[in-house]
Amino acid sequence: MTLKKFPFLLPILLLIALVSCKNEPTVQVKTVDKQAIIDSTINAFQKTLLEQQIDSVFKKYHFNGSIAVFKDTLPLYRKQSGYSDFKNKTKIDSSTIFAIGSVSKQFTAVLVLLQMEQGKLNLTDKVSTYLKEFQIKEYENITIHQLLNHTSGLNLMGGKLMFKSGSDFFYSNDGFNALGKIVEKVSGKSYDDNVMELFKKAGIPHSSTGDIFKGTYFASAYLGTSGKFQEVPNMPKRLGGKDIGIPAGGILSTIQDLHTWNNALYGGKILKPETLQKFMGKSAERHHAVFGKMGYAYGIMVNIGKPNSYFHSGYVKGSPSLNIYYPDTKTSVIILSNIADEEKGKGSIFKPHIEVKKITDHLENTITQLTSAH
Fold this sequence. Notes:
Blueprint: H1 9-19, H2 34-61, E1 65-71, E2 74-81, E3 83-85, E4 90-91, E5 98-99, H3 105-117, H4 144-148, H5 173-187, H6 191-202, E6 208-209, E7 222-224, E8 229-231, H7 246-249, E9 251-253, H8 255-266, H9 273-280, E10 284-288, E11 292-296, E12 301-302, E13 310-316, E14 319-326, E15 331-337, E16 339-340, H10 346-349, H11 351-373
Parallel strand pairs: 7-16
Antiparallel strand pairs: 1-2, 1-15, 3-4, 5-9, 6-9, 7-8, 10-11, 11-12, 12-13, 13-14, 14-15
């Protein structure tokens, strides 16, 4: 932490020093909640910093989408800009529903773990026990655990394994779509029915899947720029096709729903404590083309080093997204968009997301240092 980066940290440090002073007055007139003063001051500092720095990201990249930061239930930052429908100039607002791409994977992982809690499967079970397409020599030893953390060696169904199952990491959408089929097999219900029940349990009423969505607030997806754009056809129905698949990347959600989901999931309202630890536990390593080296758990990425965070990016044509949760401060950072200039590549598409993550990572480290020191 450095005062050069955050010059207005000095007043906060001085305030903490003052309210932390152990010298008590001879006559105590009124009890002062020192911690409440510190917390409110830090929150005000965070709000000011986020507004300055994330606003600049919107401006720098002409960002078309929505970004929000919540500390538990407290909104620290929220802004949306641009259009959910470019042709009709419909503005993005707090009700806008976005395709979240691979952020969907954590929902599928949780559904699998819920089936495990009911005794309907074990994570060490071979997938071939449940799915006929895995009953071939090439796939016969792949386990549910290996599909959950992308260590099965599977790339595309029917193809050769990339490596011996369990020995390395290779990101596979087909692996997560297979997990969706397992959920259907052991539960006797469709994936959509299972995930809608999960949404109800989590208290996220505006989330759906590409297969069953019937609302009116969906953000159409576009390729190109706001000045020269092309709408991605057949959205959101195309998310259920074989190229993507609902369990791997076909969920639709809102800023508010993802924030509520983070609080419910990591707050222990969805999974039992020991199951949540399995979900969050780093069991593989991923070298992400955009975000770099990280740990991988079950449908969720884990930051290596500080700050402690769980996150996942998502991308389906025209819809880049990022969902981050910092457990130490119960802070959610959610970035949703509905346009991408694919000609510039993924690195360029995710520049706003990377920049916001750097801002919130640095802020999280700073706040953690401040609060742990006092």
